[in-house]
Amino acid sequence: MSHAKSHLARLLAGLAALAALFVAPAAFAAWDLNMPKGVTELSDDIWNLHMLIFWVCVAIAVVVFGAMFYSIFKFQKAKGAVPGNFNHSTTLEIVWTAVPVIILVAMAIPSARMLVKMEDTRDPDLTVKVTGYQWKWAYEYLDDEFQYFSNIDALSNQIRQLDSGMDPSQHEHYLRDVDEPMVVPVGAKVRVLITASDVIHAWWVPEIARKKDAIPGFINEFWFRVEQPGVYRGQCAELCGRDHGFMPVVVDARAPEDYLEWVNERRVLAGLPPRPTSDATVAAASE
User: Fold this and answer.
1) Are 165 and 229 contacting, i.e. CB atoms less than 8 angstroms apart?
2) Angstrom distance (rounded) from CA 28 to CA 34
3) What is the pLDDT of residue 174?
4) What are the Cα distances from residue 137, in Å, to 129, 131, 132, 246, 247?
């Protein structure tokens, strides 16, 4: 009897939670059926390819399920339908083999072209080496000879402590903010060399549409070009250890002139002379 009551209580709790999901406006605040379009050239191309493949699948589903349900309801035994007496059709077999092959090839061509473009890291405007640590990121600007670490921001770190008594809702970007973001100029092709010093991490920023594993002893690479100034947030996408949830990734995309000013501040801190205002990276990004 008690066992039945326990089942009933769990069922009622589940129904209550489901009802709360449908009536609470906050539950729909981040509701989005489709993938984000992003802010880079690659993310735009990926989104367009995603929608192309999606509508091809929709068309296939409409044709296949339409034919299936039409047959089910039109040719019912109760309506006097008589089964056909044929058991083989060479023409039909050729058609239902050739049509899927043509569709797959048509989808494979733009997909392969997209993959080739994503892996083309030639002719970058700047190169940044990213190293994953437990649990922070290091950014080394190879062209400008300075580097720094990027840790979770102080407020998030304070809130996450046990018995802090602080409400995470007090922080707009709780666990999604850092003390030192990765700074890049808008319009520049950024080549990223990524590795790790201890365990496998993964650098991921959804709006930039790039996610790459950081593996100790290996150097992977990828590239992106941010088209709109702004701050874009992500996180480590690999279960890398106890504090995996506390190593966010933040990219700050600035106008080329602002980026050059930031670079010169970093170079001065590193004991290096500032770069000229006619900097090649800024000029390339401004084109």
Assistant:
1) no
2) 14
3) 94
4) 10, 6, 5, 11, 8
- Please tell me the predicted confidence (pLDDT) of residue 212: 95
Peptide bond into 47 cis (omega under 30): no
Average pLDDT, 10 consecutive residues per value, the chain (287 residues): 53 53 48 83 93 95 96 89 82 92 95 95 96 96 95 93 88 94 96 96 94 96 95 94 93 95 93 75 54
Q: Taking the model in full, what pTM does it have? A: 0.78
Q: Is 79 helix (H, G, I), strand (E, B) or coil?
A: helix
Strand order in the sheet with 136-141: 146-150, 136-141, 126-133, 190-196, 220-224
Cα 65 off chain centre by: 32
Single-letter amino acid, residue 244: H
What pLDDT is recorded for position 175? 93
What letter would DSSP give residue 245? G
DSSP 106-141: HHHHHHHHHHHHHT---S-SEEEEEEEETTEEEEEE
Using the CB atoms, write b or e for 127-158: b if 16+ within 10 Å: bbbbbbbbbbbbbebeebebebebbbbeebee
Write the DSSP symbol of residue 100.
Answer: H
The whole-number pLDDT of residue 163 equals 85
- Give the end-to-end CA distance of the chain in Å, rounded to a whole number: 76
> DSSP code of 276?
P
Q: Which H or E run includes 220?
A: strand 220-224
Closest CA to 194 of 186, 205, 180: 205
- Count of H-run helices and E-run strands, the chain: 6, 10
